[in-house]
Amino acid sequence: MNGNSATAYSLMQHTPDTVFKVAILGAESTGKTTLCRDLAAHFECPWVPEYMRIYLQEKWDKDGQTCTWEDLLPIAQGQIELENKLALESAQSENKYLFCDTSLFELMVYANWYYSDCPTELTQAALTHHYDLILLTKVDTPWVADDLRDSPNARDAISTRFEEQLNHYNKAFQSIGGDREQRVHQVVECLKDFT
Prior knowledge:
Blueprint: E1 20-25, H1 32-43, E2 47-48, H2 51-63, H3 72-92, E3 97-101, H4 104-115, H5 120-128, E4 133-137, H6 155-168, E5 174-176, H7 180-192
Parallel strand pairs: 1-3, 1-4, 2-3, 4-5
């Protein structure tokens, strides 16, 4: 299954040295986007939305179709292009932090979860991209249905898979849970260790 014209996609990560980049990963409906928004508001800095949701919502609205194998690399390229653009803008605006609602690592984990495979170029990029801090959201928020979510009963299993994969590839991470205020406080305290 590997392939998908991978050479047509550029997944290079470009992060200015002055930007401290935080990736927020986790199972669906575990508060990743909310945490990104809250942290960006707290630090008065930008955040990178999850491009997969933008891409797939448009696909759903237009054709009523969900994600397929052929969507993986276009989604990956859209995500990294958005991340690179906002990282550059952050550096130019002298913002210290950039919070990323997902990364290619998450897309890789989901590709293997749903398809038991992942495009080679996506895997290579996911494993080489660097984040100064990786956060994994706990499954302690209510599941909220929408057009794209499909696994209300698999969140614990998917969260465990994230932990296993992060540990397998020696990607240090911090688990974040609690209500919105508690989550922001945990991240603020965690970031003190890096400054």
